[in-house]
Amino acid sequence: MISENSNVKRAVVLNGSPRRGNSVTMNVTRAFVDGLASAVPLETEYIDVIDLKITPCRGCLSCWSRTEGRCVIDNDDMNGIKSKIEQADYVIESFPLYFFGMPGIMKVFTDRLLSMMSTYEGQRHNIEDGQSLHGIRNKKPDRKLVVVSSCAQTITDTVFDSLLMQYDCICGKGNYTAILCPQLMTMVNSSEKLRLDRYLKKFQKAGAKFAADGKLDEETLKNLSMPPFSDSTYKTLLGIFWDKMKKGELHV
Ligand SMILES: Cc1cc2nc3c(=O)[nH]c(=O)nc-3n(C[C@H](O)[C@H](O)[C@H](O)COP(=O)(O)O)c2cc1C
């Protein structure tokens, strides 16, 4: 139930991991949202994208021509989700990195948001100036998009480049905040609780900072994306991880 109290901010969290509640990325996302909620009155709705009925975009371009932004597919969950996004102050997309991009379910979901983009009429806005390449229809300047993504690799450079370029083109550089977490599966599954709590605390702090400033500075983002383990420790931990997985002693 969405509050009518205008002081209360609205957050929609879209969990794009097919692993639903087991998503390790969601550990970070929840910590961030807890931080947000500690700094502003917040109503949060968590949605597992995998459980939504989302028909793939048909490519008919009706939303860009005949229907003024309305999708002609009206027998699935997308219209409802779109209106939640339109009413939200914070849209938080949380998903694992799959083949250096977003998981398939998130791509199907994103394609269906074409109706939120301006009709392409040859424009090429400058993404370096924070403009969406096409432009965004009915843009709500105060709405913030946060993308939280985790991966198995130890670095975030290169590995996340194609994903970030995609978001740069869609939203414009600087018009969204990307929180990138390497080595996360191992971190969540192999560390002592204290270490994990300490790790998650920094995302909670970042959430509170984001609520206050509406953005995160470069240094904070860099700190959030630091790999929790050194390369050699990570290799050892990965060896243990795969060994336990093979023996069926660990279920993620
Ligand atoms: C199909 C698939 C593709 C993946 N591709 C990548 C990848 O390109 N780079 C990477 O570092 N990790 C990759 N991973 C690992 C996941 O991104 C990583 O385990 C993630 O933290 C899982 O998050 P989740 O628990 O929220 O789903 C992939 C995993 C799967 C299942």
Secondary structure elements and pairings:
Blueprint: E1 9-15, H1 25-39, E2 42-48, H2 78-87, E3 90-96, H3 104-111, E4 144-150, H4 161-171, E5 177-181, H5 184-190, H6 193-213, H7 218-224, H8 231-247
Parallel strand pairs: 1-2, 1-3, 3-4, 4-5
Helix pairs in contact: 1-6
The structure holds flavin mononucleotide.
How would you name the oligomeric state of the polypeptide chains in this document? single chain
Give the mean pLDDT: 95
CATH class: Alpha Beta
How many helices? The count is 8
Cα shape: globular
Topology as a string of helices (H) and strands (E): EHEHEHEHEHHHH
Distance between the termini: 32 Å
CATH architecture: 3-Layer(aba) Sandwich
Spatial strand arrangement across the major sheet: 2-1-3-4-5
Q: Roughly what fraction of the amino acids lie in strands?
A: 5-15%
The biggest beta sheet is recorded as:
5 strands, parallel
Number of strands: 5
Helix content: 25-40%
Bound ligand species? flavin mononucleotide
What is the CA-atom radius of gyration, in angstroms?
19 Å
What is the CATH superfamily classification? Flavodoxin domain
Structural classification: alpha/beta
Enter the CATH topology name: Rossmann fold
Total of domains:
1
Low-confidence runs: none
